[in-house]
What does this fold into?
Amino acid sequence: MATIIQGEKRVAFGHYGFYQTHAGGDLPVIVRRTIGDPTCWMHSNSRPVLLQRERFKRAVQHYASLTPPQKWLSKRRLGDVEYIDNHGKTQVKMLSGRQLVISEDIHELTTTGHFTEQPFQVCIILCDPDYEPLKGTLHLEYRDAGGWHEVEGRELVLGNWLFVEVPGKMESYWVWGETEGWIDPDKPEDRNLSEAQLKAKHWYRMEAYVGEKLTSFSDPSHEITSVDGYVLKRGRYRWEDIRHGDATEYSDTLAWERVGWAYHSWVDWYSMMSRSIHLFDTKLLPNGCEIVSAALSIFVTHKIYAGLEDGAFNIYGCNPVTEDNICMYDYDNISTAPLSTSIPMRDIEEGKYSVWYLNAAGRAAIEREGITKLALRESHYDAPNREPEWEPRPQCYIHIYFAECDSIHQRPRLDIIYRG
It folds into this structure.
């Protein structure tokens, strides 16, 4: 009769774990394995192991070649990577930064033979025809799946705009500018840039305007058709209820008030939401004239910004009940269609004017020989009806001056360039 002798149990590794020794210690990089890979783990010269080590080497080199902003962006990303543990179960590990990029690269090299596409950065100067930087806003958009999407940019110094999260390999890119007193050339070639052309573009030159300028202020006198003021809803409301209905407070005689919203101490309830209305007498504009550019300037005294990363403010149209005073019914008479580009809270400065340059829809809203009606509201949560997470107890509002403030240099004003 045969005798069965139990020998040493064979250990099978469940995934590839590659390590690179550096000053901070060993860095694990986890990648997906396929059936049969563990049998090659102990054979250091097997083809699968050699290929995997080569992919790891190339991925490390690719990460080292990234620009500092690309590495900084990778640290802000989190991603799930699947792997098989020693018990044969699929597990998920969350990685970020260098580990995530290298793991994604190894997977892409295995499946497609290419590296993972990383966003790139461009810096473009908004300038006049003589290459002198201009104060204004430069926009960058990309076309993907038939639609245009805007890339967030930041002005480093006068006219120098940096875009650090530009996705690669898009259908096309479009650069355009807005600045008071100058016209965007709107050339066809700037609407259909390739990735290589965008990376080579360092200047965006505006064209000189030929026209007249009209500056209009809201009137501080009560019962004048160019009134301004605020409408505010205060109490304890759910998000869907605080956005609609009638205001509980309103005024067209105060010098300043807040615009925005704030949480309530009760979970998932909100205590305040406020919007401002600004009417301007633009009767001096000739009927049929062309509005070349328009900018609404509102003086911000303070800002309160907590528990959020992406609050912002923008300009919208409005249709108040009357043109000579503010009433509680005007709370719901403010549009949600933006007339400018939102200004993030981090870019709003206290003790200074915030300037919104009106887009095509905003310029079309300017009344020739009439009253132009504009409004200010929070644009990341309030206008699009995007309820924030209550847990960090968020609040997002700014204090602004109205026409009743003491100095004309702090009153809301509308600057219009027109011709014809």
